[in-house]
Amino acid sequence: MIKPLSPSACRFLPAGDYDLAMTLNCGQAFRWRQGADGRWEGVVAGRWVQLSKVGKCIEAKTATPQRNWDWLDGYLQTGVDLDSILRTFPKDSPMQQAVKACRGLRLLRQEPWECLASFILSATKQIVQIQQIIECICARWGQKVEVPPGHKPAYSFPTPEVLAGCTEADLRECKMGFRAKHLHKTALMVVNGQLDLAGVNRVPLEEARALLQTAPGVGPKIADCVLLFAYGFAQAFPVDVWVQRALCELYFQGRKIPKSKLRLFAFEHFGPNAGYAQQYLFHYMRMAKKRLGEIDVRSQNVVRQRVKTGN
Q: In angstroms, what CA-CA distances link 15 with 53, 70, 73, 190?
């Protein structure tokens, strides 16, 4: 008889080809923070968890002993064969440059309600702003979760039932603006059974996208984010203004192509894991934009110094 594992508050997850920092900070999830010691902290499935990369493993720590760690394995998708996914990507130069720069980036598998609500709040917001809004609603309407002694409080993501019981004015206090109306109405739809989140992954991609788009504030881009990051629809290809611009420049000689046609192009060009390819391209573009911004700042500083010294 196999003796069951004893509960433990620490576990090492095999994760050789896994870039933890890139995965947690690439814009697919918004509740992770990196501490001064380099470790990442977040809340997954109602549990505070701290993650760090140690060799070819991810070290995971929780505040309370865990007998079963499937909740974290599923979230991090550590068992996915990344090589087999990357082999399905097209061999064109832009895609291969993105793979080279972002090797080890993984897609998470998030809880559907939290993912949907988070991306409703993401509309026309920068990542830092999204994080601040989500931190506010969790602190106000989430449940306290166990944390290590002396650690600052941490909270679960509020349920649709709790948010449906709020007023729009309450929600606006977290500086979400017009998104308060969308979030509140979506929470009501989930609670009333008008939007069955459990049934989304039982239907084909197009039908699943249409189902999510019945929620206020959810267009094709947000729907595809949720399908990709919460349900594992590998061919969902979110197209925002940055992805649209990049695809037009890289694949259409700068011609402006409608987002609907770009989604069709992505479906045909990037293959069965188009959504994975999108995340590589998206993060690669974010990295390039950041580098260009740093170069521009350095150039401006050089000019200011020359003006100051008269050289």
A: 9, 15, 10, 35
* Spatial separation of the C-alpha atoms in residues 57 and 183, rounded to whole Å: 37
Judged by DSSP in three states, 104 sits in: coil
**Hey, what are 216's tokens?**
């206020």
Domains along the chain with CATH numbers: 11-82 (3.30.310.40), 110-233 (1.10.340.30), 234-284 (1.10.1670)
Find the distance separating the first CA and the last CA of the chain, reported in whole Å: 81
Angle of the 220-229 helix axis to the 259-269 helix axis, nearest 10: 30
**Residue showing tokens 């990295």:** 287
For residue 278, CA distances in Å to 69, 127, 145, 151, 221 come to 29, 18, 34, 37, 12
* pLDDT per residue as tens digits for the range 105-125: 999 999 999 999 999 999 988
Sorted by sequence, the CB contacts under 8 Å of residue 67 that are 6+ apart come out as: 4, 5, 6, 7
- Express each pLDDT in 189-226 by its tens digit: 999 999 999 999 999 999 999 999 999 999 999 999 99
At 154-187, the pLDDT tens digits run 999 999 999 999 999 999 999 999 999 999 999 9
Show the beta-strand stretches assigned E in 153-286.
Answer: 154-155
Select from 118, 105, 104 the least CA-distant residue to 179: 118
SS3 264: helix
- 46-105: per-residue pLDDT in tens? 999 999 999 999 999 999 999 999 999 999 999 999 999 999 999 999 999 999 999 999
What percent of the chain is predicted at pLDDT more than 90? 84
Q: How far is CA 34 from the centre of its chain?
A: 15
Phi, psi of 300, rounded to the nearest 5 degrees: -65, -40
Q: Which two tokens stand for residue 252?
A: 């259409």
- Rounded CA Rg of the chain: 21
